[in-house]
Specification:
Length: about 450
């Protein structure tokens, strides 16, 4: 480790003191002695489980919060602008925050991890792989929290812990699935025609997603430090995630045609694209300034700079539309009844996202935009819940289907209705843009 990193040195100076360095191992040692003094035949197992639980609390919970607060705290204390203007590179800033902000949590967690491996090695436990899994999951969660912290700072959110709760919820959903996989580690997971032990599969997944999370944090830091990058990482991650999750329903790849496998990846990618489109739409700064910069690059035909200025939610939405078209074409050309019935449903699904993004932009492009997220959520609740529910309650099911068309049944009807809705919402957003922000383009 190169300790010349000023961001890492600063965080280490803030997090460590003689008292904390001495007190942590002493307290942990006393707790371990308490377990050893207990009359139990499974004393080593109890110590290993207690160390693992302590690691989860200290590193996965507390450490994730510290990583999530690292940039937000500086934005609140008005020191982040000075950090951005320093000569430190995005990569050094990223791992300086990633390792420095939760450094004391890593210090305590490292001690607990050693105790877990020492106690677990006396039993029939694959402690090395389990420790690596715990380590990779912690890195993934910290990087996700840091990424969320950078995005929150760009949005002007200065509350401590902003976005960290959501990161923890998402991470524990992933962890809950992983823990169910590890209930019986001797069993195997069927994935893309492969049979992999549950522990090895969870470890490989944690390594892969941890690496993607660190890359995502680095790319967000590049944007925050005004170092423009072309948006290749997000589409690559979306395709990787689509292929990863599609491997579970396509576990018997030898019995599935290559056409069905391609459809599975594309259809899964549509869901992934919608998740990223909505998340980034509400997380990124979006409004007239961003569109003006993009428009200037397009007018001067600076296509690389235009890609660098493109909002990430638009990148996710564009890729989702491409995958939806590919899924619809693949489903229509397949002889399987199920895929043939799906038809244009993936495209109709993406039309929902296009309409909702246009509604968001309509409010964001106001002359003095205020509470854009709240206004958008209000109308989405109306369109997805209140209006269809009230219309159906009064027996106007046909009108309700025009407000919220079902994706099952008559897919062509849903596609047509959503095409009209998405076109209207987009036209309203474009009209507001031309009227207020680009009248010469009208």
């Amino acid at each position: 480790m190169n300790t010349a990193n000023p961001e890492l040195r600063r965080n280490l100076w803030l997090e460590f003191s003689i008292h904390r360095v001495i007190a942590a191992p002493v307290v942990i040692g006393l707790i371990a002695l308490l377990f050893l003094s207990a009359e139990s035949k499974e004393v080593m197992n109890n110590i290993a489980m207690a160390a693992a639980f302590g690691y989860v609390v200290v590193v996965l919970l507390w450490g994730t919060k510290l990583a999530g607060d690292s940039v937000i705290e500086e934005a609140r204390d008005r020191t982040w602008d000075a950090q951005r203007m320093s000569s430190i590179t995005p990569w050094r800033m990223t791992w300086g925050k990633l390792l420095g902000a939760p450094s004391f949590a890593w210090y305590v967690g490292g001690i607990l991890l050693v105790i877990f491996m020492a106690a677990g090695s006396t039993m029939d436990m694959p402690v090395l792989r389990q420790a690596l899994l715990m380590l990779c999951v912690a890195i993934m969660m910290h990087a996700m929290a840091l990424n969320g912290s950078v995005l929150a700072a760009r949005k002007g959110v200065s509350r401590r812990g902003a976005g960290t709760i959501l990161i923890l919820v998402l991470a524990f959903l992933w962890l809950g699935t992983g823990l169910r996989l590890l209930d019986d580690m001797e069993k195997s997971v069927a994935w893309w025609g492969l049979s992999i032990s549950k522990l090895n599969f969870a470890l490989c997944s944690a390594v892969a997603f941890g690496a993607w999370a660190v890359l995502g944090a680095y790319r967000s830091m590049c944007n925050e430090l005004e170092i423009r990058t072309t948006p290749w990482a997000l589409p690559a991650f979306m395709l990787f995630t689509a292929a990863y999750f599609a491997g579970f329903p396509l576990r018997e790849i030898h019995s599935a045609s290559s056409l069905r496998a391609f459809f599975g990846v594309m259809a899964t990618g549509v869901i992934i694209a919608m998740v990223f489109s909505y998340a980034l739409l509400f997380a990124e700064k979006s409004g007239a300034t961003e569109w003006q910069r993009l428009r200037a690059r397009v007018i001067t035909q600076q296509w690389r700079r235009a890609l660098q200025e493109m909002p990430l939610w638009l990148v996710a939405l564009t890729l989702g539309v491409c995958m939806a078209l590919a899924a619809s074409v693949t489903g229509g050309s397949d002889n399987g009844r199920l895929l043939h019935q799906i038809g244009t449903a993936p495209v109709a699904l993406m039309l929902f996202a296009i309409r909702d993004a246009a509604i968001f932009q309509f409010f964001a492009l106001a002359r003095q935009p205020r509470r854009v997220e709240a206004a958008t959520l209000f109308y989405l609740v109306l369109l997805y819940g209140l209006l269809p529910g009230l219309l159906k309650a009064f027996g106007a099911d046909t009108i309700a289907n025009f407000v919220l068309p079902p994706l099952s049944g008559n897919v062509a009807f849903s596609f047509g209705v959503m095409t009209v809705q998405a076109s209207l919402a987009t036209a309203l957003a474009v009209m507001r843009w031309r009227k207020i922000h680009a009248p010469e383009a009208a």
